[in-house]
Structures are given as C-alpha cells and as structure tokens.
Write the structure tokens for this entry.
Amino acid sequence: MKNMMNRAVGLGATAALCSLAVLHVRAADMTRYNATAGSKMRVEGTSTLHDWRVVSSLITGYLEVGPNFPKEPGQSVQPGKVDAHGEATVNARSLRSINKDGSYYEDKMDDKMYEMLKSTANPKIIFTIKELTLKESAKDKDSPYVFDAKGDLEVAGVTNNISFPASILVMPDKKIKVSGSVPLKMTQFKIPPESILFVKTADDVTVKFEWMLKPGSAPAAAAK
C-alpha cells in the first residue's frame, strides 16, 4: 500500500512538472505587444435631433500572440486560429463628446454619458481578447491581415461576449495597428436609451477603433 501511494505521489508530481514545462514552452513561443501612443476609439450614435459622437485618444493594454501570427509586413501565414490573448482598456472618463467637425461639444453631455456608463463604480471599459482567427492574409506589405476577433466586452459593469472582423496592419518598425468597427446596442449592457439634454438617443451605437501596439515584455510583477 505504501509503495502504491508513493508511486501515485510520484506520478502526480511528474504530471505537474510536465504541465509546467508545457506552459513554459508555450509562454516562450508567445510574442507580446504593449499599447503605445496613437490609439483612438470613437462611439457614434443617433438621436431624435442629430447624430452624436464621443472619442477617446487612449487605449491601454496588451496582446500576446503565438508563432502563427504575422510579425513582418506582408509575411505569408496560413489562415486559421491564432494563439492569442490580451486586454484593451479605455478609461470611461477619457471619452469626450465632439461635434461633426471634431470640435468639443459640451460638458453636460459628457456628464450624462458618465452617469449612463456608471463610471464611478465602473471606471473602465474592458475588452478581453480570447480568440483570433486569420481569415485573409495581407495582399502585400502595405495591406492588413483580416481576422475574426472574439472576447468579452465589459461596459458599465455588464459583460457580453462579442465577435467582429478586425484588420491588423504590421508596420516596418514592427508595430501593429489593430482596427475595426463594432455595432452594439446600449441595452446589451443594461444602459437604457434615454434623454440627454431633452434629446432621445437611439439604442444602436457603433464603436470604431484604432489600437496601436509595439513589441515589448510583460511588467516585472506579471512575469513572475
């Protein structure tokens, strides 16, 4: 009986070490990109009076991808699922209302927007990247790769699983630009369309983004 127990413990320890080794190899194969300057997010909607739009010029976070992710402009890669995970974050109070010409709109709309986003209790809008699938390779060095992206989007404390097409352009300096357009409904996140300054907003909104990232490493605390 004792020998059997020792053997079981030994097998368990071996399995654990093998699992750790696999995880270590997988981590070593991953390439990390950290968010950098030049990102922007734009949310567009309609109302009973006019169209509206809000913007943020800061998207933080990171993306980690496996060896089957294109790392050079125009690199030949096979379509299919790519090992990937990451997180894109926007501070809710970094959003600002603007006019059609890009000039600032007004504080009252911003304050109402922060209230609708429940920004005090939920200060961040977070997209957790769970899956990337390459659908189309770049046609040349100046063209983007087309992916299907899937993950969890948290807004106002409510999380929904979403998917959308995303274009990823690999630049000569090894930076990447991830861009896309995502149709959403405010009610998906328990945000009821309501009056802002006596104007009734519609439920449908469109989120457009350009997320700039550069090769980097994980923070020291996360790397331990």
Q: What stands out?
A: The first strand starts at residue 31 and ends at 35. Confidence is low (pLDDT under 50) at residues 13-25.
